Amino acid sequence: AQKVTQAQTEISVVEKEDVTLDCVYETRDTTYYLFWYKQPPSGELVFLIRRNSFDEQNEISGRYSWNFQKSTSSFNFTITASQVVDSAVYFCALRGNNDMRFGAGTRLTVKP
Amino acid sequence: DSGVTQTPKHLITATGQRVTLRCSPRSGDLSVYWYQQSLDQGLQFLIQYYNGEERAKGNILERFSAQQFPDLHSELNLSSLELGDSALYFCASSLGGAGTTGELFFGEGSRLTVL
């Protein structure tokens, strides 16, 4: 069975702080894909990144970076120099041979 | 704009009633997924269709049913509604079915309120 755990329910930071959102996953599939989605207060789900299980290279996109470590089954997401607009619920998701399963989400609040 | 269209955006109904939520996937996408997001809850996978066929089933109640039509749009039917069914229902689409790599593109959701 596939499972995604986001242990941090809520995180609150002050603007310009760096913040890391944790994601740990379980799967028996040898090939799988990991995703991060953002859900701002407006409610829509916005795709941020996809990584496949064979590519453990970290990725950086502007202030966002992702650290994929297969040895610890983790796919963590770091926001550098956070901004108020980063306030949202962030979901980590896992897709194996079947459907995509989401973690419970981490609510990030960035205060000015 | 993800290209996935969901209607209605908001729906208020009473317990015991039946509603239908509609989803049009992105042009060219063959898979449609339905998710339920209750208040302050994560996304619960309900069901997936690929090119008209059911491909995967999650925690979908027996009172709920779905189908995907030949034109690839999908409908989620919720019957004998209970207060606890109040939630945001998301539809998502992707190009392929099981085993494909693609991310899901989500609609804006249909917010159902059961009074």
Radius of gyration of chain A: 14 Å
What value does the Rg of chain B take, in angstroms?
13 Å
SSE string of chain A, helices as H and strands as E: EEEEEEEEEEEE
In which range does the helix fraction of chain B lie? under 10%
Biggest sheet features of chain A:
6 strands, mixed
Q: Strand-and-helix sequence of chain B, N→C?
A: EEEEEEEEEEE
Largest sheet of chain B: 7 strands, mixed
**Which runs of chain B of at least 5 residues are low in confidence (pLDDT < 50)?**
none
N-to-C span of chain A: 41 Å
**Count of DSSP strands of chain B:** 11
How large is the share of residues in beta strands of chain A? over 45%
Stretches with pLDDT under 50, minimum 5 residues of chain A: none
Tell me the number of strands of chain A.
12
Query: How many helical stretches of chain A?
Result: 0
Report the structural category of chain A: mainly beta
Average of per-residue pLDDT values of chain B: 91
Shape of chain A: globular
Number of helices of chain B: 0
